[in-house]
Amino acid sequence: EAGVVQSPRYKIIEKKQPVAFWCNPISGHNTLYWYRQNLGQGPELLIRYENEEAVDDSQLPKDRFSAERLKGVDSTLKIQPAELGDSAVYLCASSSPDRGWTEAFFGQGTRLTVV
Amino acid sequence: AQSVTQLDSQVPVFEEAPVELRCNYSSSVSVYLFWYVQYPNQGLQLLLKYLSGSTLVESINGFEAEFNKSQTSFHLRKPSVHISDTAEYFCAVSSRIQGAQKLVFGQGTRLTINP
To answer: Do residues A6 and A75 make contact, with C-beta atoms less than 8 angstroms apart?
Structure first.
């Protein structure tokens, strides 16, 4: 089966500019996650979707971050405006109840550099 | 809430030497435990997981981890490492109720194999 696909792989933008990341989860996985991984740190959950509903967005900085998963499949994470501290790797993951919620599959990530 | 502490940020070892990557967790409820591996410029891949049953779990590439409830630990070991094991390793914990829907990661341990 195809894995979680993210694009772009790398993005360099100037501060105050907007940026968007795209994720296509594994087919049939109704749960989708966005994580942020700062340099030298482990991933931290930003938001979790069950189908098209955001069920856990408590860690999403809502003043500048937004996400959507309109048809319950692909998802987009947006930052507007970007700040220097947003430089990180943004990881998308998906999972399914078929595996008893015991495994999340991760994409390769988008490395964002804000200059 | 759960938390994870990986006690070593970097572990250098020689090829064919044994290695142990340490992980301690904190939780007030029963947990699932995971080790993920991140090779350079790649996403996270599940290495092994403890769900229930035998406290010793193994991966297909020779790693093993042992769940120790009394010491709240889930250390990762390999008796003889290879150059290809060079990667960053992340320990993660979740409650049994939420599973992969709420993974909490440690800060990671960078394993460097020297020839």
So the answer is: no
From the list B20, B19, B27, B8, the residue with the least C-alpha distance to B104 is B27
For B61-112, how does the pLDDT look when each residue is reduced to its tens digit (9 = 90+)? Answer: 999 999 999 999 999 999 999 999 999 999 999 988 877 778 999 999 999 9
Q: Is A57 helix (H, G, I), strand (E, B) or coil?
A: coil
A18: tokens are 């907007």
Strands A19-24 and A105-106: unpaired
CB B13 within 8 A of CB B111: yes
C-alpha A75/C-alpha A31 separation (Å) is 11
- Given an 8 Å threshold on Cβ–Cβ distance, is B49 in contact with A102? yes
Cβ–Cβ of A45/B102 closer than 8 Å?
yes
Rounded to whole angstroms, the Cα distance separating B22 from A50 reads: 33
Matching residue, tokens 């994720």? A23
Contact A64, A4 (CB under 8 A): no
Q: Which residues of A touch B42 (CB under 8 A)?
A: 108
